Automatic annotation (TrEMBL):
Organism: Dichanthelium oligosanthes
Highest taxon of the lineage: Eukaryota
Family listed: Belongs to the UDP-glycosyltransferase family.
Molecular function terms from GO: quercetin 3-O-glucosyltransferase activity; quercetin 7-O-glucosyltransferase activity
Gene3D superfamilies: Glycogen Phosphorylase B (3.40.50.2000)
Protein name: Glycosyltransferase
């Protein structure tokens, strides 16, 4: 008589708002959880602007197994039904509209998906949801499934929001003054201008509303708070916030392998000497004005240094003709997209002009590349202050930018002056620390293992 098949491993459902900067780190976390022996399913509301590569997927498939990883498997199940927009709906292009829409309908859609998993013989053991998707943890609670949050920004920013929305520290106000410094346990003193933007965004702002829902209910909805950072980078902030939340630093969350095959950007970089190229990228959402684009282009040209500049298709019409034509020769290359992690890791890149999104911040640190910071919104000003004042690996570009200021900043990093050499040495130190954190036995590896063990224990008790 044959023995019954073994039960499926504990099942973690990863849930994200359909925004690329939210999706990418959650997918990396999923692969690491799967390699630890968990069954992992990823879900979001897919749309045509979202890059989701599903190995084995056919057009129209709702389910795709991406990879067998260790003893687990990473799967995709698209969130659909219950009034969710179709993948080709143009409203996905407006982030605020996406936020409102998901808050209206996604809780019911996700609860239905959780029930279908149980009906299929793979009940969900834990839901891990990105921040800014409070509907996901609401669905987990409604179906009786434990929840965890993945905070994809820094622990510093999480601590600032937590102390602000729980009124645990003094922040700039009419009483304290608009320029009052901010002192939060575990953090350096911050200027008012370095605070994340949603602290003082209007109450009706859709992403502020999502954040308030996340932060105020976090102790009740999340059994774990996974943070895209590593202990060596934010030790004091992590330890201080653990007095309030069950923090596990599991980052940096990006693929350690840069991939192979033909890449026109890498091929172009191969033709340049070490540390000679300025890499410029402002993320998937920031859109510079016509005047800003003109000053950046003129500043890059004034250095006489080769540059690689990512200009999205929706900003191409703002690009000065002089910069556009530069991509036809060896002085510069303008592309609509690149594999950023792979580019930053290339020996030819000597400086990164960045908007300071947290993904870009951690990628720069892990690649050992010093930066010129030009933050635009959200938590980017906080990240810029962190890179310059705490990590010591960058300089600030004033706002609004001028060609002369940009040239001065780039030369401070690129010319090999004493300050530039110090910055580069510190950048190399952070590169080593980031690599050690995610290596076997490193701080983030251990934190991830602790979470996997907790979920395995929870699953064993079902």
């Amino acid at each position: 008589m044959s023995s019954p098949p073994p039960p499926p491993p504990p099942h973690v459902l990863l849930v994200s708002a359909p925004l690329q900067g939210h999706v990418n780190p959650l997918l990396v976390l999923g692969r690491r959880l799967a390699s630890g022996g968990l069954l992992v399913t990823f879900t979001t509301a897919p749309h045509v602007g979202l890059k989701l590569k599903h190995q084995h997927e056919q057009p129209g498939d709702d389910v795709a197994v991406v990879d067998d990883v260790g003893r687990g498997a990473l799967r995709f199940e698209h969130l659909s039904g219950e009034g969710l927009w179709a993948p080709d709906d143009p409203r996905y292009r407006v982030a605020d509209d996406v936020g409102r829409h998901l808050d209206d309908v996604a809780t019911v859609a996700l609860a239905g998906l959780i029930r279908r998993q149980a009906d299929a013989g793979r009940p969900v053991t834990c839901v891990v949801a990105n921040a800014f998707a409070p509907w996901a943890l609401r669905a987990a609670g409604a179906t009786g499934v434990p929840g965890a949050m993945l905070w994809t920004q820094s622990c510093t920013v999480l601590s600032l929001y937590y102390h602000y929305f729980h009124q645990l520290a003094a922040f700039p106000s009419e009483e304290a003054g608009p320029d009052a410094p901010v002192d939060v346990p575990g953090l350096p003193t911050l200027a008012a201008g370095d605070l994340p933007a949603l602290v003082h965004a209007p109450e009706e702002h859709v992403w502020r509303q999502a954040l308030v829902s996340d932060i105020r209910g976090l102790r009740e909805t999340a059994s774990w708070v996974l943070v895209n950072t590593f202990d060596e980078l934010e030790h004091a902030a992590i330890e201080a916030l653990r007095a309030h939340l069950p923090i596990l630093p599991v980052g940096p969350l990006f693929d350690t392998e840069n991939g192979g095959g033909h890449d026109e950007c890498v091929t172009w970089l191969d033709t340049h000497p070490p540390r000679s190229v300025v890499f410029v990228a402002f993320g998937s959402l920031v859109k510079l004005s016509h005047d800003e684009m003109a000053e950046v282009a003129a500043g890059l040209a004034s250095t006489g240094r080769p540059f690689l500049w990512v200009v999205r298709d929706d900003s191409r019409d703002l690009l000065p003709e002089t910069a556009a034509t530069a991509s036809g020769n060896n002085s510069g290359k303008v592309v609509p997209w690149c594999a950023q992690r792979r580019v930053l890791s290339h020996r030819a890149v000597g400086c990164f002009l960045t908007h300071c999104g947290w993904n870009s911040t951690t990628e720069a640190l892990a690649a050992g590349v010093p930066v010129v910071t030009y933050p635009a919104w959200s938590e980017q000003r906080t990240n810029a202050a962190f890179l310059v004042d705490v990590c010591g690996v960058g300089v600030r570009l004033p706002t609004p930018p001028t060609r002369d200021a940009l040239r001065h900043c780039l030369e401070a990093v690129m010319r090999g002056t004493l300050d530039g050499e110090d910055m580069r040495a510190r950048a190399e130190e952070w590169k080593a620390k980031a690599s050690a954190a995610v290596a076997d036995g490193g701080s983030s590896c251990r934190a991830t293992r602790d979470f996997v063990d907790a979920v395995l224990s929870t699953g064993a008790g079902d």
